Amino acid sequence: MRPADLPVVPGILSARELRRTAESIAAAQEPDGAIPWFTGGHTDPWDHIESAMALTAAGLWDEARDAYIWSAKSQRDDGSWPTQLRAGVVENPDADTNFCAYLATGVLHALTVTGDTAFAAELWPTVRAGIDFVLGLQLGTEGEIHWSATESGSSGEALLTGCSSIFHSLGCAVTLAERVGDPRPDWAAARDRLGHALRHHPEVFLDKSRYSMDWYYPILGGAVRGAAATDRFSRHWDEFFVPDLGIRCVSDAPWVTGAETCELVLALDAIGDTATANRLFAAMQHLRETDGSYWTGLVFTDGKRWPEERTTWTGAAVVLAADALSRATLGNGIFRDAC
């Protein structure tokens, strides 16, 4: 990748600064390719992919490839992944449907950025098995998808944030299927049903409205656009926005978090509000450390960083938000329906 292709947000972060953030993610990567939350921490399949996407956007393709190969090697026979692993040991064997769908987003992003069709074809069976597993849990009356599966069966509950992310992943999966020559119209139909539930049947989802993700994820995932998205933002903006710092993770706690703030940046960019997105991106830079890594959050009533960890997925959200704002790589529109 040429230096000119690397993300840069003028006046906020340079290409070199963003490269250092990606390098801080790569520094935590384990020998088998897994990317834990931080060195010595646990790995989950969703945040692992988010980190791989950031490595791709920053030009660290070898490290990103290793991460995707880890996903392929750690997939179970039913197409799922365990929710949590640490140093290769499963700590939580349950399967989260959102986690299992997200590889489709990552592989489409990798293909779009690098043009490596052979690698996408190599990962395709893994993506296909993961999506088929997820859609096997589309058991709700309105098209919603149960959020987890255990040895005793599904959870019986659907989460708005998780299903919004799955909606996005299904769109990526449908596009990827076409690009590798294995069209899946059944996936497109399942996505349409899920989108209908997200837009018109909020009652089928477990109430998690105190979390900012339930506010912006229907927009980030692409289920809500246009006037409905603008209205959704305006109705809850004051609940979550903290001037000069970012957004709250939960509405009733004085805690701003970097990853949620950057995901909101991506959602704002997706509906064309780049001015607000840039201001918000600048505001969260107080979480940046000198090595390019990012603290997870800040309790703004006492000025303490909490939790006291610098997470790879927070840095990844920064890189992906920067790429979207800068339009740097060919994958900059992965959350803007441009891929």
TrEMBL record:
<keyword id="KW-0808">Transferase</keyword>
<dbReference type="InterPro" id="IPR012341">
    <property type="entry name" value="6hp_glycosidase-like_sf"/>
</dbReference>
<dbReference type="GO" id="GO:0016740">
    <property type="term" value="F:transferase activity"/>
</dbReference>
<dbReference type="InterPro" id="IPR008928">
    <property type="entry name" value="6-hairpin_glycosidase_sf"/>
</dbReference>
<protein>
    <submittedName>
        <fullName>Prenyltransferase</fullName>
    </submittedName>
</protein>
<dbReference type="GO" id="GO:0005975">
    <property type="term" value="P:carbohydrate metabolic process"/>
</dbReference>
